[in-house]
Write a structure and sequence with these properties.
The protein is of the alpha/beta class and about 350 residues long. Helix content is about 35%, strand content about 15%. Strands 8-7-6-9-10-11-12 form a seven-stranded parallel beta sheet, sandwiched between helices. A five-stranded parallel beta sheet has the order 2-1-3-4-5, with helices on both faces. α8 links the parallel β7 and β8. InterPro entries: D-isomer_2_OHA_DH_cat_dom, D-isomer_DH_NAD-bd, NAD(P)-bd_dom_sf. Belongs to the D-isomer specific 2-hydroxyacid dehydrogenase family.
Length: about 350
């Protein structure tokens, strides 16, 4: 990339149309070194991209179906952004950003991991409770006037159940804590990137074999990012490995579970119920069969959408841009291998060094 030196200007951060919470604007406004550039589509995508090309930072929507494809961060877009030094996702996920493309372009990528962990963990546990107590079936029957004997909706307690977590990062760790403290659950975790001692510190027992874990669990909850390794991780073989009558919850990312295979497992009765916050297409089409299944709770990727979590993740993002503009690498870097290259580009563009220290 051929950068234009902008050392006498403020650090410009572009974002498309809106930010997730006012906290981002309020926090950024406290730093005179930052200049926010609101991009609109009023004059077309090319005009907005031309504005973005003047920016050193890009605050990127994390939901792939809410961000127009030309604004997804990949090799094609980065070739048009010669001044870009840092991209920050608007959440913990970064489906709209290709880390390898950022690394090739010498662009730092950060996310806001942990900022919405409480909200997502509460949502996951709430779904577990609702599914075990058979809320969706009972609600539908009452709403439709199909009153039945109460025993037709006999549920199960969460207390003492075995719960398997696929992924034990920030959200998985908080989920495990809630399950232990409130419900005395046995918590297992499958996460090939975390060693057994760390898993134990996070409140779970490490399982090296996913199928073996699935077979033991009353509830399986997905908390891993969408990566090439996790895409379609829960397909027909995964659902077949689950304990008969068990429950699936996912607040992670669409495409980790195969929606057709899940529907088949529900229709066969092998899986008793599912709580789905994430979808292959968001929102899913109105005629999606999982939306009308009586044993499914559906939400529209809202697990992390609370006032508290949105305020926190946007403040974290603004603080990351402030740290970077002040010459410090921020936390939550997704591609740390690019730091030396970024340091060179930073010096050439801004005329000063960037370090790992305050």
């Amino acid at each position: 990339m051929g950068e234009t030196r902008v050392s006498n200007e403020r650090f410009r951060i572009g974002y498309l149309i809106k930010v997730p919470h006012q906290s981002f604007l309020e926090t950024a406004a406290k730093d005179p070194a930052l200049e926010l550039v609101r991009l609109t589509l009023d004059e077309g995508e090319n005009a907005a991209l031309a504005q973005l090309a003047t920016c050193q930072g890009y605050y990127v929507r994390a939901s792939r179906d809410e961000l127009p494809k030309p604004f997804h961060v990949n090799d094609t877009l980065l070739a048009r952004l010669p001044n870009l030094l840092m991209a920050a996702s608007q959440g913990a996920g970064y489906d709209t950003i290709e880390p390898a493309a950022c690394t090739r372009a010498g662009v730092l990528l950060v996310n806001q991991a942990g900022g919405n962990a409480e909200a997502v963990a509460e949502h996951a546990v709430g779904m577990m409770l609702a599914l075990l107590k058979r809320f969706p079936e009972c609600h539908a029957a009452m709403r439709e006037g199909r009153a039945q004997r109460r025993e037709e909706f006999m549920g199960r307690n969460l207390l003492g159940k075995t719960v398997g977590l696929i992924g034990i990062g920030n959200v998985g760790t908080r989920t495990a804590a809630i399950l232990h403290a409130a419900f005395q659950c046995r918590v297992l975790a499958y996460d090939p990137y975390v060693d057994a001692a760390t898993v134990a510190d996070r409140g779970a027992e490490k399982c090296d074999d996913l199928a073996a874990m699935l077979a033991q669990c009353d509830i399986v909850s997905i908390h891993c990012p969408l990566t090439p390794e996790s895409r379609a991780m829960m397909a027909a073989d995964g659902f077949a490995a689950m304990k008969p009558g068990s429950v699936l919850v996912t607040t992670a990312r669409g495409s980790i579970h195969d929606e057709g295979a899940l529907l088949a497992a529900l229709q066969s009765g092998h899986i008793a119920a599912a709580g789905l916050d994430v979808w292959e297409q968001e929102p899913p089409p109105a005629d999606h069969p999982l939306l009308s299944h009586p044993a499914v709770i559906c939400t529209q990727h809202t697990a992390g959408v609370t006032h508290e979590s949105r305020a926190m993740i946007t403040r974290i993002a603004a603080e990351a841009f402030s740290a970077f503009a002040a010459g410090r690498f921020p936390p939550r870097i997704i591609n740390p291998e690019v730091k030396a290259r970024v340091a060179e580009r930073y010096r050439a563009a801004l005329g000063r060094d960037i370090t790992d220290h305050a």
